[in-house]
Every structure is written in structure tokens, then in C-alpha cells.
Structure prediction request, 1368 residues.
Amino acid sequence: MSDTAPQPTTAAANPPVQPIAPGFDARDVVRISATSNVPQPERQLTKLAKLIDVSKCIGCKACQSACIEWNDTMPAVEENVGVYENPHDLTPDMFTLMRFAEWENPATNELEWLIRKDGCMHCEDPGCLKACPAPGAIVQYSNGIVDFIHENCIGCGYCIKGCPFDIPRISRVDHTAYKCTLCSDRVAVGQGPACAKACPTEAIVFGTKEDMVAHAETRIEDLKSRGYENAGIYDPEGVGGTHVIYVLHHADKPSIYNDLPDNPRISPIVEGWKGVTKTAGLAVMGLAAIGATLHGLFARANQVEPEDEVEAERLVETEAPQPQPREDV
Amino acid sequence: MPRLRYSEPGDHIESRAPVTVSRYRGITRLNHWVTATSLILLLLSGLALFHPSLFFLTGIFGGGQVTRWIHPIIGIVLFFSFLLLFLQLWRLNLPRPEDRTWVANIGEVVKGHEEKLPELGKYNAGQKFVFWAMSVLIVVLIVSGVMIWEEYFPALVSIPLRRIAVLVHSLAAVAIILVFILHVYAAIWTRGTISAMTRGTVTGGWAWRHHRKWLREIAGRDRKGPAE
Amino acid sequence: MTNSWTDIKNTDLVVVMGGNAAEAHPCGFKWVTEAKAARGAKLIVVDPRYTRTASVSDYYAPIRPGSDIAFLMGVIRWCIENDKVQWDYVRHFTNAAFLVKDEFGWADGLFTGYDEERRDYDKDSWDYKIGEDGFAEIDPTLQDPRCVWNLLKAHVDPYTPEFVENVCGTPKDRFLTICEMIGECSTPTKTMTSMYALGWTQHSKGAQNIRGMAMLQLILGNIGVRGGGMNALRGHSNIQGLTDIGLMSNLIPGYLNIPTESEPDWQSYMSSRRFAPLRPGQTSYWQNYEKFMVSFMKAMWGDAATAQNDWAYHYLPKLDVPAYDGMRMFELMNHGQVNLYFCQGFNPLLAFPDRAKLTEAFSKLKMLVVMDPLKTETSHFWQNHGIYNDVDPASIQTEVLELPTTCFAEDEGALVNSGRWLQWHWPGATPPGEAKHDTWIMAQIWTRVRQLYQDEGGVFPDPILNLSWDYADPGDPKAEELAREMNGRALETVRDPDDPTRVIAEPGQQLSGFGELRDDGSTMAGCWIYTGSWTEDGNMMARRDNNDPDDTGAYLNWAFSWPANRRILYNRASADLQGRPWDPSRKLLEWNGERWEGYDVPDIPPTSRPEDVGPFIMNPEGSSRLFSRGMMRDGPFPAHMEPFESPMANVFNPKMRGNPVARVFAADAERFATSEEFPLVATSYRLTEHFHYWTKHNPVNAALQPEFFVEISEELAAEKGIAKGGRVRIWGKRGQVWAKAVVTKRIRPLTCDGKTVHVVGIPLHWGFMGSARKGWGPNSLTPFVGDANVETPEFKAFLVNIEPASEEPVA
Prediction:
């Protein structure tokens, strides 16, 4: 790999000046939802990443527009609710969203308008995939892209619970989950994501993760020279790193960027649910069923004896109806 | 009429030689089987989504999408069906002092030496446990289930709460399946039980052996029964 | 733009004031990002709102709408006081040393010669002292109290930081920080670029706003250099082309003028345009005016334009007023003096001020023809849309014809960008339905009108019947044919004047530059500044070579940049008096002892010696103007003027309202608001999600910004009881609108003249047609007055009031 970051490979030119090696497909899958023992692929693709440089972002929503156009989705025309975000949240038809935060920096007393492009982070350790019960509905490729395979999706929404970033959304139309695909279809043919392509200021760039991190370092240097002492990369360890990474001016406080999680990780509850509960639960139920069966087969059943019947007849006889004064007047 | 302490008003001696005792009315049996069918379907569809190795069970319902769609709907059916059942059965499932003795001597029960135990009403402590466990677990399952019902309640509660709900739902499901196994097994192991929910009657011997106070009360009541 | 978009990457400091580049020009703004990332350039934003541009700025300061001149004069004062002046540049390349007539002066907010009756100045005194040799007198030592420099010093003297704080509401410390950042760019090795747009033009003194910054840039030595310049970010794609080819009512292509009534013949017309040099040896390029004009007349009327008939000068209309600008047309319309109005690619019902007046005016037309790809509000002005267009269709008799046109993506032709690049483009789609190219529609109408004149005669049919219409299909001129005509060709053999044996162009050949144009009728060119765009070598506008030797940002082989493919205007000024680049690391041109060479096409003849010929060849002085003589109606220096609707009186002259020479129609004067009635200052602007009134027709854009809103400060919201996202009513002297409230920290109350001034931000993208929710434009509220020089409406500063509105009002 190169020592320094090359020019970003998309958004600058079309076709890219330095094209990404095209071609990845089902052979490159390394993880599949609800499937263990995924065979190790023959090759390891170079890890990719989309870098979102928040300090260069002007919040123009070209990424949203490009995302809609490329994915052929059509979010509804909503209303204004007193903010710039539109649609108001990620939706099954809006895979990425500019989020705007007005923040007064207590250190400088300056207002900062922090604009963050929200969307799938493509975690190295994807919580959605871990939570998904449908085999093959979520896959991860060896280049890091986490993709939803809609024909396998059952629309249960477990991915929503698994995701530490609140990203997947279930369509009310086809009842499957949607999120940013990192334009896996474009990347598969050597193009970058549509949002990166459309971004006018190259706030969104795409390339190998190594290059993107190196590019981010140069950006951080520039930001530090402008007084942003805590500028840094957001590539959270808790989910094994992500394939969408941010350059933040205030990397020490991710949550000021519209609640970007400070230390995201797959929730321990989800881990517990998909880990010990799943395994132990199945074991206990299985043992109980087997135990009951064995007991039923080999232990003596609780039989009603003939003398029980006789006793019953005698009891009924004893208590037989005979004229008696009424007790309960 | 004296207060019925060990039987329902509808329980009665159906024939005397041999003795058969009517244990459940038709409506109750129907109610039971609707509940049972729902539970079994829920169990199958739920297990399919619980563990990948059981995902094939979605095939029974016509695929994952249908399974996801139908599971909570069956859950609603179960809830209301069980609610009806609950209203019919809860009174005689209230604990009684003899239940304590019964539980303390559970070993004798398993060995089949019920003669060493006190006489029981319509339900023994084991049956009562199944009843109350089902009642509590179904409430837990319906509440947690609604919280994670994406299709109709996508944003009822926060995601962290939904995570707890889904975990609770899973644990409760495991528990209810264990209770279900116990219930089914006990019904089979205790021969003569199943006819109570099929034909609605049990033999006098069965009643004598397992629920003597119940039998006694019915017999006593029949004595001054319909003839008047 | 003096420079180009791509050149912005060369700058050290970007000042965005009077614009919001990131928001309104996001694609061009990439070059600011590039300068910041690659050069460590800084970005300053001065704006009433903390904008999207401000969100990526290094420093922001608020300013009251309409007070920019005070700010800019304050910066100039600070630079002079703190010696932040590029002295060599000022001495040699500006008119600082020129002596001004003794009668010239300024007092009480007014320059000498004001006539209140006519709302105009007698500008005689606004000029240089002319010596006996016929040249302007100068004092190179800048000691003479009447030299421009000393007059400038005196002019800016009142604009102290305290004055700026009081008038602009900009806190003094912020103002001074910005002065210091700007002052650093007075060294020859640091440059600043000014990026501005309609935030400066849409004022009653818009041209003077721009003058103010241009003067500052001259003082800092930033004109003609890489990374410098005055960069007007044009508001529409190809709006630069619109002005270039003379779609202003007082212009003909190439910034030549429509004659006026006082110029009845060719001689009187030309006499005031052959500008003789005001200093020895200077070029005064407008001396060539006649060549451009004759070539234009030959392009218009071909053989019917001859030397004998003064090139058919009598065919040209003669203006009886300075211009039939948009507002004058609507004023006439409102007086019932217009029968038929053609509205081509224009949606005035939302784009011009005082919508109520416009609706009234359109209702008095006999016929309105709208040529547009979209169903515009203008073409539906008669249709009732409830509160959104509350008209009574039955009472409107105007016949409206909609002629659907193609849109840019279905057309072939050139778009001229802000950087003066003519970029050829090809159709990307087939026109839908009955949509036709504008050229087809115009040609079809034209051929029928000509037929009528042919058949029926008329009062004066000659200009129509003799119009040159030399297209293969007269009913459908092609883009190529039109482009070749604008470039121009030889009609007779064109020879080199210095060497008559050398043939420059044979008859019928395309010309390669405007230097080949002749005033003897041997050449024709529809738009002289475009000459060179389609030569014998082909279509220069279609070039797509993105090689850029040494990464200068020039891209000389990409498209064609007028004039003469020059990328930076006044580029001679990038080098010192001896021809050495001010900043060797940013060389543009250099004198090698014999000729100019470098990365751009030199602005002066390539062999002109640096000491002899000044860089500003279009000016008879050869230098740039800190003092603009009588070129502008409202003064040779920019002076602070309040908007016509202002929260405070003019501190120089409390009786002076707005721009004292701006044209005000009688009825409109009565419709100006006072701050007693309407205490809030409103300003209008674009959002990046939309382009004007077009993109609301596109569901994607509509989804990204669906509904009309206004922005107010948290303080104003609290004062008025307005909730975030709540519905509000905004009303002014001329109308009312309802909107959602965006309550934000990005607008803060200002303190001006001791009073709290609240600003209401009103974006302009909604109407009653299209996919977005129905709403209004700010033009329902804005005053019917424009810039004193060019009549750009005052959209950026006006008065309103606001209150919470709970429910949909009944229409």
C-alpha cells in the first residue's frame, strides 16, 4: 500500500482517476446472518471505507439526493417541523440523512453548526447481522461491506435491535429492512458510492480503508492547525472498527454530533439474547423434551387401578342420592 | 346451595356403573384446544426465529415473511383464548393447604404412591403450577411481544427497551415451552387424563385416585342433584 | 468573476460576504474546500445569518442586512490606518495619484451636485483635473490633497470600528479580527478572494457594495492575481451568458449599448464612446468600439447595413428612458400600457418584488405568453389557489398561452459560467411531449411576423424584412449556426493592418479573435467578446482537455473563456511594474524582456513593455479606479446608505431614505414601511436543497426541503411566543405570508443605533405549483425598488412583522 493517501478516488472524477479494483460477489462473503461455519473465502479483498469529513461538509444534501436517485427510492414530501432535516429521520426510502446540530462550544463561546451525514457505519462486527434470525438476510463481504439481501429478509426488525447506531428501517411496503448498502452494486463494478460521487466538497471520499485513514490523518492535521485540538477519526473499536469513518473536529465528544454514540458496541443485552440465551435455551428445551420422552418410555406410567374404579363406585354409592332433609334452605 | 370448594358447578357424575365424571364442558375443551393449537403454532414459529437451526420450521407457515407476520397474530389469539380459559379455571387453581403437603411429597407422586398423599380437589399443585406459570408467562410474552412488533408498533418503545423486551420474550418463551412440556408429559404419564380434554370425562377410578375431594363433592352434590 | 472557479484554489483567504457560496453554489464551493485543505486557506463569512458557508468557516461575524458599505469602508479605513496597503500596486495600477476637480466633495451623506427634484446627481465635478496636454493630472507622490488617495482617506474617515459596530451591528472585536485577517493579504505573497452574489446585488445600492470590495481588493493588490479577484457567483447557470449577449434592455451583445434618444445618428452615438486615453501610452481598448459595433450591425442586417446608411443605425430602437428593465415594464403594465408580454424562461410572479402589484399588472394584459419547461406561477397567476394565490379568475380577462420549452438537459449549446467559461453541452434526453427548443419557437414566431410585414407592410418594416436570417432551416436555427454567428466571420478578405500582404481571413472564414474585427464592414460578429469561441479550428467551447501545467488552475484548453480565452482578467497586474510576478510561487505572467509569457492569455498586447502600458486596458486611464468618476449614478466612492426600509435613520443624514438616486415610482413610495410599523428586518435567500422556483417541481428536491419556512432567533421567538416548527404569519406593507418557524441560534439579535434589531430570514423556493407543499416567496413582501445603477430589486433588506398563527386562515 502507498505511504500517503492518494487523491480520493471518487467524487473527483468520473470515471475515477484511480479506479477501485472491481468485482466482488457472493464468493467473498465472510459472514452470513443465522449461519454458522461460513466457508473461508479463497481470497481476502482489500478493506474499503467511506470517509465522511464532517469538517468539509456543507450540509447540502447532495448525498441524500444521489442516494435517492441511485437506489430509486422516493421519500415522501413531508412538512417542515422547525428543523433542516428532511426527511425527518432515516426511512426505508432514505438510507442517509444530514443531521444538523447547533452547538455552542463552551471553550470558545463560538456557535458551531455541526452537520453529520448519518447512515450505516458498516461495522466490522455488525450487530444487525448478529441479531438477524433469517439465514442469508444479512451478509458481510471480506471488503467490509455489510449488505441486506432482501429476498431472505423476513422483516422481523431484529437488526434494528442489534444495530448500535439505529440505522435499519423496515419498509411498510415490502416488509424488509433497508439501509445504506455502501452502494455495493456500484463498488462491485469499480465505482464509488453514489453519495461520494455527488459530494461537491469531497467531504465524502471512498477508497481502501488504509488510504482513507491516511487521508483522514492529513485532514486532522489541518484541523489541529485551525485550533481543533481534539480533531480525530471516528472508527469505533467497540464494533471492531467501521467501514464508514468520520473525521470529527471534536472527536472527544461524538455525541454532540446529533447523538453519535461515544462508545458504540453491540448491546450486552443483544449479546446475551443471541449468545447464551439462544444456546442454553435450546439446550434446556431439548433436554426437557428428551427427558420427558425417556421418562415416558422407561418409567412406569401412573395407571388407574381397577380397585380405584371400585372405590369410586363405592364412594358414589355411599354418597348415593337418598331422600334427605334439605340442608341448605 | 353449599359453596363449591373443590369443583365447578358444571362438573357432574355422568354414569354410575362404571362411574364416569364429567370434568370439562364442551366450550372449555374447545377453548383449551384453541389455546393449545395457538401455543403449538407459536412455539413452532417462535422457535424458527429463535435459533437458526430451527429456521426451517418457517416452511410450515409458508416462509419467513409469513412466519414473521403470523406469529404475533397467533399470539393475540392465544392471549384472548387463554384469557377466557383463565376466567373459567382460576378459582379452583387458587392454592390450598393440602398443596403444600403434595409438593413436599412430590417424590411419592412420581413413584405413583398417591395413597400416601392427602385427598385433592379438582387440581393438584402441579396442575396449578402449570396454570399460573402459563398465565404469568403469557402476560409477559404478550407485553414484550407487542413491544417488538415492528409491523404495527414500530416505535412504541425505545430501542434499548426493545432489546430488553426481545430478551425477556426469548426467556419467557423458553420457560413457557418447559411448562408446556411438563403439561403435556404429565397429561400423558398420568394415564386417563387426556380424555378429560377430549371427551370431557374421566373415569371414576381416575377421579378417585387423583382428585378424590373433587369426586366426593360432585358425588355429594349429585345426591341432591338434578332430581330435585 | 475576474478569475475563475478553478482559480479559487490558489487563494489564502476567502471572504464570503454578500453571498452564501456553500449554500447557493455548492459545486463551485469545492474550490474553497480545496484551498482550505491544500493551501491552509482561511474562510471568513460575514452574513446576517450563520449560514452553511459559515458552518465550515474559520471566522464568522454577523451584519445587519443592507449595511455592507459601512463594513467595507471600515475595513478600508483600518487598512489605510494600519498601513495594510500594497503600495506598489496602489501607486502604479490604480488611479490613487489622479487629481480630482476641486469642486468635488461629500457632505451630509451626499456627493456634490445632488438634485432632489430629479433624484439625480449633476456629475460634472466627479472627474479628474485634465491638463493642457489633454491628459489627467497626477501626483505620483500622493501628496496632493486632491489626489484620489487623499480623497479616499478622507471619505472613509468616518467609518471607525465604533461606527461599523453601531451601523452594522457587528461586534467591534469581530470586526477588528476580520480586519487583521484581511490586512495580512496586503503583502504581495498573500491573496484574498471575494466571493459574492445576490447578497450584495439585491440592494438599492448593490453596485456600490461591490465597488466597496473591489476598492479593498485593489488596495490589497489582489486584482489580476491568482487566488484574488472579485468573484461574482452568478445566480443561474448561464446568467453570465444572458448579460453577455445583451438580454438587458439597454444593452446589445458584448456590453455595447442600445442608443438613446439623445443619439439620433451614428456620429452622435459613436462620439461619446471613442474613449481617448487619459494617460500617455495607454490602450483604452474601447477605442475599438466602432469595430465591434459595425460587426454587430453586419451580423444583424448583413448587406442592408452599409457605410452609406451608417450601418443601418436607424434600424436600432432609441431608448427614451435609461432602460426598460423588469420593474419599469411591470409598472407600465400596471398602468395598462402593455398589451402583450412574452415571458421566456422567467417566473416574475415569484421573481420580482411586490407580488400583489404584479398580479394586478398581469391582470391588465391582453395576452401573456409563457415559454417555460414547467408550469409556472406566472402562467397560472389567474388561477385561484386558496390563500396561496387568492385571485378571482372570473375578473381576470388576460389570455394566457403556455408554450412548453425544452430544459437545459434537452438542449445543445453553450452555458457561460460565472468564470466566463463557455462550455458546450449536448442534449442528454429527448424533449417530452410537445416541448420545443426556445430557438424553434422564436424562429417560428419570427418567420410568421416577417410574413405579415411582407404581406401587409407596416409603418417601418425594414428592420424586420432586412434582418439577416441565414440558417439552413429558417424555422429552426441550430445551436451551431447561432454560435458561429456570434463568433463572427470575414465578409471580405481581412488583412493584417501592419502587413497588408498578410491575409488573416478569407471571406466566409470564421474569425479567431476580436482583434480581427473591422469597422469597414468586412467582418461580422454577433457578440464580439465571444469571437474566438468557434474558429476555423472548430468549436473551442467543446474542448475538454483538463491538462493544467504546474497546477495553476488555468485549464486553458478546457472550453473557451471570454475574452480571448483569458482566464484571469487584468492578469498583467499579477506582475510588478517591471513585469516580475508579485508572488513567484503563484506566477501567472512574466515579462521576459521581449514579451509576456506565462500560464494565461495576457490582457495587454504580448509585446507591450511593462512600464509603458497599464494593466487595466479597458479604462482610458490604464489603471483601475478607486474613484469611479461619473461612471455610477450614486457616487464615485461608495457611501453608506440605508435600505429604503430600515430600522434606523441614515447616521449621515437622517432625512435621506434609501439610495437618494434610486428610481422610485410614485405609487411605490407610498408603500414603503417604517420601522415604527414594522420593526423587524427581513432578508431573503436560497437554500441548497432547491434552485429557485424550479426544483420544487422535482419530488426529490421537494422531499429534501418540503415546506416554506422562515428563520428567526430564539430571542425573537421567545418575545413573540413562537414555537419551533409552529406556524407564523409574516406581514409587511405590501402583503402577508404564512410559514413554519425555524427557531435557531444561527440568527442573533443585533444592536444598531442603540436598539435591538431582529432579523427574519425568508428563503425563496416556494409557490403554488409543483411537488412541494404550497407556500410563498419573499416577493409578496419586498419593496418595488431597485439598485440605482442596474435596477436589481432590493430583496435583501426590508421590514416585516411576525406573529404566531395557529390555524389555516380562511381565504
User: Anything to note?
Assistant: The mean pLDDT of chain C is 96. Chain C has 22 helices and 33 strands. Chain C touches chain A through 46 residues (CB under 8 Å). The longest helix of chain C spans residues 438-456.
